[in-house]
Predict the 3D structure of the following.
Amino acid sequence: MHSGTDFYQQAAQAIRSARRLTAFTGAGISVESGIPPFRGSGGLWNRYDPTFIEIDYFYRNPKKSWELIREIFYDFFGRAEPNAAHRALALMESRGLIEVVITQNIDNLHQEAGNTTVYEFHGSSQFLVCTACGNRIHFTAAGLEVLPPACGECGGLLKPDFVFFGEQIPEPANSRSFLEAQLADVFLLIGTSGEVMPACGIPFLAKENGAAIIEVNTEPSSYTGRITDIFLQGRATEVMARLVEALGIG
Ligand code: NAD
């Protein structure tokens, strides 16, 4: 594994010569937009008990669950904007360097930055889905003043269209992401601990299929030292700015 300041040129070279480059992002890329990760110091699970987004708890206690969901994912996350790392990925797509972004995030910041092909492995906070009739609406159309929100079509319980603990990964994001791991010859991991199943398996599958792994993280992850070829240590905004410079597209 390579790491340190001398390796930006090597990473840029791998990216320039890639046949198909895929980015795989986690909560770390949005930390500098003001959205905390789940784990680690400053993580959400130090402040909140994650039970409120367990699917069984949600159905048993929709009002209580929704009160925390609104506070964390709408009042608070809702104010976040894309940062320099999100914008770097959008720039790389616009220059034909990136095919796909696979994200574990639910914050819509890759799309807001300008990426057009984004597989949302854990769904999105932007939409709510009716648990009775399947009707799907933008969250701004729901009016979250009265909780729990009810479907305008059938009166059923609305749920955020992101994956709760105990739920399946949505299609087609699930199958497309694992297919992407077989197609790409370079994978760029940004801000992911590699501890959340089954998403964490995607980079391992890419490596098994011969992809080179470039990793951006403030600290070593489950991938570092196992499958990472080039480790660019630091905050996502700073590392991605240097990478864009090394690519000569800044
Ligand atoms: P995680 O919370 O398990 O790990 C975050 C990773 O980011 C860590 O490895 C950490 O070292 C790294 N990191 C922290 N700050 C960073 C920075 N400034 N620059 C680069 N790296 C940084 O995150 P995960 O692996 O994505 O898994 C948590 C799950 O929780 C995700 O799958 C996602 O569904 C969900 N989540 C989403 C959001 C969001 O949408 N923004 C926020 C929190 C959690």
